[in-house]
Amino acid sequence: MPDTADLPHVAGPDLAGMIDPVRTALVVVDIQVDFASPEGVAGTFCSDFAPIETAIERIEELIADMRRAGGTIAFMRVVTRPETDSDALKTLMVRRGMPGGEAICRAEGGGADYYRVAPQEGDIEIEKLLFDSFHATDLDAQLRARGIDTLLMSGMTTECCVDSTARTAFHKGYNVFLVSDACVAYEEHLHASTLDVLAQNIGLLTTSAAVHEALA
To answer: What is the pLDDT of residue 98?
Structure first.
């Protein structure tokens, strides 16, 4: 298993020439009660929330950095309802022996609410049904309307919604950076392995400290 710290990362001085705040968006993926809080669905299977809380602290710092630099912040959020649940996902859950496992981030009940982070007026907000933030949403149109060509990816989980969104972003022509310490998975090996694959194929890795330095 790769160690995230051993993977190649772009340092702050080099990153400064690659991320123009006017053309860059920080994408914050699925920092929500059901995924990130012990009070949400994750509390039923996750025994250690420390890595999640640490990643959210880095995201909070990135949000502050981007606001000071005049960059765009885009908040992604899963919002589900019984009538819009994916048949494929329901079938997958049944075949895994987890019927009802798709009932997460419901529009009612608070599970879909943001956790520790919150958009402000002028930020992009996207509601999605599944993993890819571009699928069946207007994220691409909103980014292009603002002249965005570069994305800083953060959020959770690294191997699922961050991965899916980053891959589509690359296919749509965006320059993709994965902020490694501002992404998180429930299992470290999934986090590190996904970053390794993404760094080899669709983007560059960097850190929250490097982003801070580049935007300063």
So the answer is: 81
- The C-alpha atoms of residue 137 and residue 142 are separated, in whole angstroms, by 10
Which of 128, 132, 160, 183 does the annotation list as catalytic?
128
Rounded CA separation 104/161 (Å): 14
Neighbouring C-alpha atoms within 13 Å toward the C-beta of 69: 24
Of residues 161, 163, 183, 196, which has the active-site annotation? 161
- 172 carries an active-site annotation: no
DSSP letter at 30 equals -
DSSP 52-121: HHHHHHHHHHHHHHHHHHT-EEEEEEE-B-GGG--HHHHHHHHHTT-TTTT--SBSSSSTTSBSS----T
Per-residue confidence (pLDDT) for residue 99, from 0 to 100: 75
**Reported pTM:** 0.96
CA dihedral over 71, 152, 183, 164, signed as positive or negative = positive
pLDDT in tens, 178-187: 999 999 999 9
* Contact status, residue 71 vs residue 177, Cβ threshold 8 Å: no
Is residue 128 annotated as a catalytic residue, yes or no? yes
**All structural domains of the chain:** 4-215 (3.40.50.850)
- Catalytic: 161? yes
Residues of the chain with pLDDT under 50: none
> Regarding beta strands 9-10 and 150-156, do their DSSP bridges make them parallel or antiparallel, or are they unpaired?
unpaired
What's the token pair of residue 173? 């022509």
Largest pairwise CA distance in the chain: 50
Query: What's the CA gap between 157 and 70, in Å, rounded?
Result: 27
